[in-house]
Amino acid sequence: MMPLAFAHEGAVVKVLQVKAGRGLARRLRELGIFENQLLRVVKSRGPGPTIVEVLCGSVPQGRPSCVLTSCYYHRMGGRILLGFGISMKILVEEVGNQ
Amino acid sequence: MSVVSDIKLKRMKVALAGIPNVGKSLIFNQLTGGRAWVGNWPGVTVEKKVGKIRIGDNELEVVDLPGIYSLTAYSVDELIARNFIVEERPNVVVCILNAANFERSLYLAISLLELGANVVLDLNMIDIAENEGYEVDYVRLQSILKVPVVPTIATKGYGIDELKKAILSAMKERRTYVGIVDYGADVEREIRRLKSLLEELAPGLCRKYPSRWIAVKLLEGDEDILSKVSKLPHGSRMLEEVERSKRSLRRRVEDLESYITECRYRKALEIAQQVLKRIKTPEVTLTDLLDFVLTHKVLGMPIALSIMYLLFRFSFEVSAPLVDTIDIVMNHWLHDWLLSLPGLPESLKSFLADGILAGIGSVLVFLPVIAFFFLGFALLEDVGYMARIAFIVDKIFHSFHLPGKAAIPLVIGFGCNVPAVMAARTIEDENERKVAALIAPLSSCNARLPVYMVIAGAVLRAYAGAVILSLYALGILLALIVGWLFRKTIFKGPSTGFILELPPYLSPKLSNVVFKTWERTKRFLFKAGTVILLGVIVVWLLSVSGPGGYLGPKALEAPEVLERGWVGVIGHVLAWAFAPMKWDWRACAALFFGFIAKETVVGTMGILYGVGEERVTEAIMRSFTPLTGYAYMAFVLIYVPCLATIAMIRNELGLKYSLLALIYEVILAYFVALSIVGIGHLMGIR
Amino acid sequence: MSNEGSRILSVAISTSLIIGIAYITSGLISLYNWSVMILAPEGMVKGILRKYIPGDLGMALILLSIGLTLLAAVYYKLRQSITKSFSCLTVGSTLAIITMSMQLLTVLASTIDSLIIGDTITVEGVQLGVLRIDSLLGYVAILLFIMSLRFYDKRFRAK
Questions:
Q1: b/e string for B353-363 if b means 16 or more Cβ within 10 A?
Q2: A11-18/A38-44 β-pairing
Q3: Residue B297's closest chain A neighbor by CA?
């Protein structure tokens, strides 16, 4: 378990916990970042701000963005830039790498 | 169609909703033909745009809602959108979906449907989705959501007519789908129970909002709805019932609030799965390619600085012909023509020529520079680059406890501080937003450059370029330091950071860029223009009159007379206050007028030294040493940007903060100028 | 990858290496000329090719940035990352072309400006502007840009 800010560029991480206040947590949820969701770290100024892509569900006919444990994930919508502060509040674990 | 229904349609309202970066303003412009009234939403400084659509013989009013992701009560923008839909009851809400950011747009559409709005969906950017290798089956989407869906490509004007038709037919047939999300048997049971209670205990509220929606919001703990319910006669009983529901659910659902949003989200994902079709293997997108370099660890920063430098060249060098044309027309032709008019009294002529015309001229001369700056800026914004700057600088800004987003007001500030203060609005955290607005005036705007050029050119000659650059750097450095100090003292709080959805890079849309440039430039012209014009008139009045009464327009030509005017009095008082810096009274008086607008500093010096702007250089060489000249420029950089900026801070943050800005800037400016002189003396520089 | 695509890329990369070095060199010269101007304002030290590479901090910054980006394209090609190499190539050449256009636009603006305020326009002045190093290298960068477009068609647009 580590803050998102420390994740490597190109890593696929699973969100374990969002330690943000209500408003912030809600904004993140609206963008698809909540517990158990998968994110791909597109850019990281480790440790620093990050740019992530939210990966969602295994959609065989969807837009595969990466393959993880023989399951296709597609990336959802645009990329999200998370400032340093927020990247420190999202706890993740690395589950794969591209 | 009958005459009666025609008249009815005319009073009908359409609201435009959509997530950020969905092309909403473009669609608004295409629906309305670009004509819009811009005002503020009541009580808040969020811009409200209203226009008219003509469909056949019908005219409908269109209201552009703020760009939002959902309809919670957490942000001002969302509350505005929600209250508008509820209070004003627009006949149709057009929800614009971004086909290339489908799930998130869908989430908003679902929230709107739950609120009971009569929704027409506009599926925009289908071309970009296709480029990314997939397609949205809009017929299927239509049957799932039970509302009309119109595919469009706003950048090409494709589908706009169909959208108008769909709006018109939706006027006649209202479709709602409040029960779109299924929250699972347990929660649904409680929703039903609360719903029937609400209909019984709060019939008034249920007439405004769908009762199911209120029930869901109560379970979610929505602050706005909770406070509305608590004010009702049976409010406390209702809230007790909500608590009971929550208690009974606690055994099954851990965190009700996140559970409910997740249900909604899963619904959006589920629908997306059903309607998204892959049509080809995705190409490597342009955005992927560009972002690799533009947000690169090593290359990102130098490229960002290079782009800023190009923006400066564009705004100063390319606009030069226009600047000179305006200068010649206003300050020479019209000025001389006015003075040569026969039959007017001398004092009126002088007032018109040296007061009013000089005032208008000093604003207009800056107009091309500012318009070009905003044009370049709008281009960068439209392409999608500005958001990347926030990423590049975030790490540096973070160590000063500022969010990376605060860089954007500072960049706009190079153009003009007035819109810079306004640009701080996009920062989520309140404390961070206030600090960003308060430090924005420290970035050196276009109007300060002529002051540097004249003084640095006169006393520092060959070093002028480097010295001017050092002043820009000083401004940014001070902005960061002051920001850090504010965050440590008055505006404490954890650095929450920021979330920004990065838009894909798009080729800029000319009409959009021109429109944005025009809006910002217009705002500069009116906001700054009126204040500066007033200021110049005040300068004239203070120059031609003094403690001894009216001196007449000859004061403007004769410095000895001028010294007896109010200007002289002010100058001498200030010169006493600035004694350690050894600035003479004329330079000090110019500072006083620079308080109104920096543009007037050089002009005032010209008048006070009695030489006119052309030969002001010689006069400055006589009265400044390199050291006192540099201190003077630093003072000009830091102390109060201009009256218009202070007025804008008052607008955005209130009187208290505008006074704070005023005071901290003057103190900081004095301190910095004093240190420059002090350190210079220690090092033996004169 | 098609044969043609890889051929285009290797030509582009070798060009990029040469132009990149040219950019870095002229950036450094501009920096040198600038510091000479600052440290010896009386013109005791002459500087290098001052007419075509004026000492200008901003210009030096741009020249160095473009040069770095183009050399990064070579670096990523050597590390076999075609996509990354291509990104650098595209961004570097685009930035070079924008810089060149801005210089030409400035020359145009100052010519018009001279007309308005009644200054004389010298052929030499215009010539120096059009042949200043940032525009000069920009003309060559157009070639690079075309190559990168063609490579994009071959490599990434292939169905």
A1: bbbebbbbbbb
A2: antiparallel
A3: A45
pLDDT bin (cut points 50, 70, 90) of residue A59 is very low
Are B192 and B99 within 8 A, CB to CB? no
* A11-A17-A22 Cα angle (round to 5): 125
Spatial CB neighbours of B238, under 8 Å, sequence gap ≥ 6:
B197, B198, B201, B202, B218, B229, B232
* Cα gap B618→B667, rounded to integer Å: 30
Q: Which domain holds residue C122?
A: 3-155
- Give the up-direction half-sphere exposure of residue B302: CA atoms within 13 A in the CB hemisphere: 21
- B440 to A18, B140, B387, B658, B665: CA distances (angstroms): 32, 49, 18, 12, 11
List, in order of start, the domains of chain B with CATH numbers: 3-172 (3.40.50.300), 185-252 (1.10.287.1770), 289-491+516-686 (no CATH)
Q: Do C83 and B461 touch (CB under 8 A)?
A: no
Q: Which of B4-13, B159-168, B320-329, B419-428 has the lowest mean pLDDT?
A: B4-13
DSSP string, B427-456: -SSHHHHHHHHHHGGGS--GGGHHHHHHHH
Into how many domains does chain C fold?
Answer: 1
Average pLDDT over residues B489-518: 82
Report the residue of B273, B276, B301, B389 to disrupt the A interface, i.e. the one with the largest count of A CBs within 10 Å.
Answer: B273
Distance from CA of A78 to the nearest CA of B (A): 6
Closest chain B residue to A10 measured between Cα atoms? B292
Q: Do B69 and A31 touch (CB under 8 A)?
A: yes
Q: Between B237 and A67, where is the model more confident?
A: B237
Length of chain B: 686
Distance of alpha carbon B590 from alpha carbon B105, whole angstroms: 54
Rounded Cα distance between B605 and B354, Å, is 14
State the Cα–Cα distance between residues B628 and B658, nearest whole angstrom: 29
Q: Please report which confidence band the pLDDT of residue B657 belongs to, taking 50, 70 and 90 as the band edges.
A: very high
Interval B372-431: pLDDT, tens = 988 999 999 888 898 899 899 988 998 898 988 899 899 989 888 888 888 888 787 788
Interatomic CA distance for residues C92 and C153, integer angstroms: 18
Element of type H or E holding B170: helix B160-172
User: Quick one: pLDDT band at residue B556, thresholds 50, 70, 90?
Assistant: low
Which H or E run includes B149?
A: strand B149-151
Nearest 5 degrees, angle CA C147-CA C152-CA C154?
95
Strands (DSSP E) contained in B483-613 are 499-502, 545-546, 549-550
pLDDT at res. C21: 97
A56 forms bridges with which residues in the sheet? A74
pLDDT value at residue C24: 97
Nearest to B86 by CA among B220, B166, B204: B204
List C-alpha distances in Å: B55 to B6, B7, B162: 11, 13, 11
Domains and CATH numbers, chain A: 2-97 (2.30.30.90)
Enumerate the H helices of B74-149 as residue ranges: 76-83, 102-114, 126-131, 138-145
Cα B121 to Cα B105, B116, B138, B163, C117: the distances in Å are 10, 14, 10, 9, 56
In this structure, the strands spanning B92-98 and B119-124 are parallel
Evaluate whether chains C and A are touching (3 or more beta carbon pairs less than 8 Å apart).
Answer: no
